[in-house]
Amino acid sequence: MARKWTPATDESFARQNEGAVREARDAERIEPRAASVSYDAGRGIVLVEMTNGFVFGFAPARAPGLAGATAKQLSAARISPSGDGLHWDDLDAHLSLGGLVETAFNLREWAPRYLGQMKSEAKARAARENGLKGGRPRKRANVLKAVSRRAGAKT
């Protein structure tokens, strides 16, 4: 049996709306957003000016749906209302700015290595807590050697 729909109370709606607005502000602060997009025919690149002041450029051949497009078609780019997407309606090409940046900088492979080396208070706290527990757990092979030595076996 289907549940009967009941409208949200004003208080519930206000709470949900406040949460959505907070999430949108966080996304704008953290995620890449486009302020403008243009095609530089002289250099053969699409230029995206970001809201943080950086400019990002890419060759159309490197983006799905843009290879072989004319300069006129590439100049007709528009930005999504949220600023996180680029669209070429005539080409039926729609690209995520985050995806372009991820691909351009090989973030899937490079970022974890780089970010894993960064220091933070959270990492320092976790290291201190692990130290109180006796440090890193021993590797299984080392544990077996230690047990074998205690039992008198030669390794």
Report what the structure shows.
- The chain has 155 residues and is α+β, with helices and mostly antiparallel strands.
- It has two domains: 76 residues, NE0471 N-terminal domain-like; 36 residues, no CATH class.
- The chain is 43% helix and 17% strand.
- It has six helices and six strands; from the N terminus they run αβββαβββαααα.
- A three-stranded antiparallel β-sheet has the order 1-2-3. It has a three-stranded antiparallel β-sheet with strand order 4-5-6.
- The radius of gyration is 26 Å and the shape is extended.
- The N and C termini lie far apart (68 Å).
- The model has no long low-confidence stretch (mean pLDDT 84).
In brief:
With 155 residues, the chain is an alpha+beta fold. It has helices spanning 10-30, 71-75, 97-104, 107-116, 121-132, 140-150; strands spanning 34-40, 45-50, 55-58, 78-79, 85-88, 93-96.
Secondary structure layout:
Blueprint: H1 10-30, E1 34-40, E2 45-50, E3 55-58, H2 71-75, E4 78-79, E5 85-88, E6 93-96, H3 97-104, H4 107-116, H5 121-132, H6 140-150
